[in-house]
Amino acid sequence: MAFFESTRATSFPTSSPPVSKLTEDILWLVFMINTVNSEPIDNNQDESSDLDHLPLNTTRISSQVCRAWRHVLLKTSSIWARLLDWRSLNQETDHWRNEVLRRTGTTLLWIGGCDDDHEEPKDSTLLFFHRLVVDHWERIERLSPFPTQYERIEGLQDVVQRQAPNLEVFTFPDSPRDYHEFKGSMFAGHAPRLKIFHAMGTRCDLDTVWMSNIRELSLGRLFNNKKVCHVLTHLPRLESLELDNHTIIDGYRSPRIHLPNLRTLKLWGCIPYLRDIEPGPGCALFLWKELQTDHLDSYEQSISKILHSYLFFHSVERIYLECRKSVFILSERQVLRARQHRPKEEMFDIALFPSPESCNDVLEGLLSALASSLFSTITDLTLSCDVLESRVSLSFKRFISFFSAMENLWVDENDIPVLLQDGMTDPDPLLFPSLQTLVVLGLSPPDGKICWIAPLDQLLTLRRDLGSPVTTVDLTQFCLSEMTRNLDSLDEFSGMKVQLTKTTNSTTTMSNDRIATSSVGDMNHVASVCKLTEDLLWRIFMANANNPDILTPYQYNVKGLTPRPLEITRLSSQVCREWRAVILGSTAIWGRLIDFVSFDLKSEHWRDEVISRSGTSSLLWVIDGEMSTYVGAPRTSASRSFLLEFIDNHWERIEKIFVNRWTGEDWGFMCRPAPYLKTLEIHSMYDSQSSTQSSDIPGTFFAGHAPRLSVFHTTGAHCDLSMDWMANLCRLTLGGGFKNQDVFDTLSNLPLLESLDLYGHVSVIDYQPPIIHLRHLHTMNLDTCLEYARSIRPPPGCSFRFRENRDTILSKLSHETEIGKIYQSYMDVHRPRSLSLMCTKRRFVFHSGIFSVKERPQEIPEMELNFTSHAGIPIHSVENLFQTCNSPHLSDATRISVKILHPRPGLLAALKTFASSLTSIHCLQVDEDTLNILLDWDQDATFSTIIFPRLQTLKMSHLLHNVDHGDSIPFKPLLERFLAQRQRMGAPIQTLDLTYYDDILFWQLAATRNLESLEEFAGMKVLYRMKKDPRTIFDYECGSGHPEMLRFGPSYHSYGDL
Q: Which superkingdom heads the taxonomic lineage of this protein's source (predicted)?
């Protein structure tokens, strides 16, 4: 008898090591994060060293850590399906490649592997991946570039002309240094889920039919601007665009292209596109290999406009500036980053290469156009600059005069003279008034002149004489053995700290800062857990502390659910010395663990220790919990007072704060400017102990200044919505207490809104809301305010959840025509594979995804219609709902959960019409009562007219108890009758799943009858649990001669043994 492992978390004895205490959900998250970690984290890292840490190799090592880790990995096919990278599968034989493919099961595939100069793919590897693409095309979700051979290009051309129902990411495969043209219709015009498309070395037919949902587009040099501009006008949802050395057709005048969602614009030698493309606010601009400087003055304003918009919406702290006769670079991407500074997803990078004849004009014009107070957030500047001509020097000084907050200057000594030029040394205004640390990237050799003074000494002397001395000189970027001269002269700068690197393996600092050092031993003699790279470990620990989609305050506040991030971090720090070093060495991790709910369960000493470990890093999570059934917020007045005092003292450091109750204390700090605040969520202002508590939030939030705030959530309280800081909001939640007129006035001024949640607002009599177009919206939730859907216009494919319980609205659902339009638009774009339907007299619920007590992760439905009426929803309204939900894309669904309770005769016809559209369902989750409806529908059906003709797996959510009809009345339960009927019609059920309940007690209460009669359905597999081992799923093949294995009634199970 074979068996399958359950997905329930395995419990471990208390003597197990701390690594075993990490919950299965966290482990699953860790391993899934690893599957998308295919890029080197360190920009300066040798690519060859990264090959050992590709996701598949890391997964293999992780599977050797302990039994629990291996258990999670081997049973999760979706992990293995993301690891088909040729660099990890480049063996002589197909044995390991076939084993990895087998472990993918039937899940969707990620195929790829970057082109690499360190390793060439073997012929057997090329053949395997070519066959993989051809044989499993319909399963492919991501196809990233992988090398192929010229002679196999033709075969791939045939493949890409097939429909691609699941494809989300597509990059044309590279053949060695060749360019190709793929002819014919791409994807047969059908790639509904495609969001990322790259064709850098290949030309193909660009058809807006299959490109309409593209979010990221890269096109190489084989295209021209006329064709590209035509396509771009039909891609309103584009978020990232990369264009490389296109042919510019003389005389072609492109229409103005508005791309409101564009977050990244990358142009390689394609600067003319700046005239045509108007990106959204905050777009990051990349300009590379720009050699066309004859007309550069016509692009200066376009460059500065996009860059200034980016700086306005992103608080940039570190940039690189290079200003020479042959090159101008202003970049956030090329910064020399300290270890604790991880690269951002969006960065600007402008690199221009003027000719010697025009360089001064180019530099003067650019520096003048780019100068702005928006650079006042810069704290770190890497400077590389020649001595400039006087007119360029004036523009340069004005430009860098806006760097008023800069604390750290990274510079080679050879580049310091630019700061000593005439005009640069004037005390009014003083350049870099906040400068504290000078990071020296290299030293000049001694000049040999008798009176020669090193530029470093000159700059330090100048700063001291101007009353703004440098406090630290950092020489750790090179070791002492590489120094070209003595530095005895630095001793005259009393009080200044100097950091030195004595050798290549050790670092000494004369400051009070602690610098972590580590050594790598023989990797063959350490435990497998220690082989995980430090960067990957850091990502793991940060994911635990900084992943609101997995660990939101709603989930981990509740008793008995996943442990809180602070507790998981504490356990992780006890796994081994390496893990502890990473965790204790990162203040950013601890800054995300300021959780007063966890602090209240421990001592004050632990609370103070966690706070001290956060250093001066930003505080991402400051969580104030809730009482009653939740693990409470500060229980004592002293603890509560400490919370308020802490927030008051560190208000300017806080990025995200969650407040779950309001008890009347002084929250005056919320009326101070919040320069770093990104998220504020006030989930409840109600205090059960204070009946006089006001429902209004007093004062003016943030003194009108919260430039980075993008998420605002308030329920149960009212505040002024006419505030300037709301203009940058991307996510907005407003509970009851607001008037619909105020809500619509606010929505009309939120151009960047991406997520909207509205709950039961007060209606203003005779107010007619205007039509509001929210072009960036991707999620809309309306609860008890369904009429708002008449006036809000989301973009195509917007996810939604509509909930309503007012009889006045439910009785006139046929009037809510916009619901149908939003639903059909969602189905056209997303085509969900899993659906769930519940229909009773009082409830109608239809949503994407199947709710199961054990499925992981438990996702919030992207689409939901949820209507409840205590008086009963009128039949004509339910019929209208079934008509609304009908869609040709229902045939794409493969799984559905159905619960029909006490069906009203008038609805059965509409329900059957709806069910008949679900022609691809192969897995049905249902209770035994609902099977009675399917029996009636299929009673006189043939194989061609049967409901759910492709059904293979029947998953029972509830079984009826034994019913005694007496010996004279033959009785066959609904389940057995349904199975027999399907068998007679030539569509037998292949798998009967009885594992819905994880808890054996619930399973026994639900399955209180024997199922030995299932033995007659030979070949059908039954999945079930046993009392002696409830966490394991067993299977039995009917007809095997052991029907006693299906005896689940009271005669087999003893409740007293539980």
A: Eukaryota
Domain boundary among the residues 897, 930, 964 is at 897
Q: Please provide the DSSP assignment of 206-268 as one string.
A: --HHHHTT-SEEEE-TTSBHHHHHHHHTT-TT--EEEEES-B--TT--PPPEEETT--EEEEE
**Can you tell me the distance from the alpha carbon of 320 to that of 409, in angstroms, rounded to the nearest whole number?**
10
Which structure tokens are listed for 380?
């770190």
Q: Which of 831, 813, 808 is nearest to 879 (CA)?
A: 813
Q: 845 and 937: one domain?
A: no
Mean pLDDT over the full length of the chain: 79
Based on the domain organization, do 941 and 884 belong to the same domain? no
Question: Cis before residue 173, ω within 30 degrees of 0?
Answer: no
Structure tokens at 675: 């320069």
- Of the candidates 593, 534, 604, the residue with the CA atom closest to the CA atom of residue 567: 593
Kindly state the average pLDDT of the residues 972-997.
88
The domain tally of the chain equals 2
Please report the pLDDT score of residue 804 as a whole number: 93
955 and 881: one domain?
no
Amino acid present at 121: P
Handedness of CA 332, 334, 338, 340 (dihedral sign): positive
* Burial class (CB within 10 angstroms; exposed 0-12, middle 13-18, buried 19+) of 266: middle
Q: Which of 237-251, 323-337, 531-545, 937-951 has the highest mean pLDDT?
A: 237-251
**What is the reported pLDDT for 636?**
54
Q: Are 1001 and 1029 in contact (CB under 8 A)?
A: no
Q: Are residues 1014 and 1049 in the same domain?
A: yes
Q: Which domain holds residue 946?
A: 922-1058
What does the block give as tokens for 833?
């594979």
What is the C-alpha to C-alpha distance for residues 443 and 475, in angstroms, rounded to an integer? 9
Domain boundary among 841, 862, 897: 897
Does some domain include residue 1029? yes
Dihedral of alpha carbons 448, 449, 451, 454, sign: negative
Task: Confirm whether 1004 is domain-assigned.
Answer: yes
Same domain? For 885 and 931 the reply is no
pLDDT in tens, 473-498: 998 887 666 666 778 888 888 889 99
Q: Is residue 422 part of a domain?
A: no
1011 with 958, same domain? yes
Q: Within this chain, do residues 942 and 1054 fall inside the same structural domain, yes or no?
A: yes
Same domain, 813 and 883: yes
Give yes or no for residue 101 having a pLDDT over 90.
yes
Is the pTM here over 0.90, yes or no?
no
Q: What is the mean pLDDT of residues 607-612?
A: 86
pLDDT at 999: 45
* Beta-carbon count within 10 A of 939 CB: 8
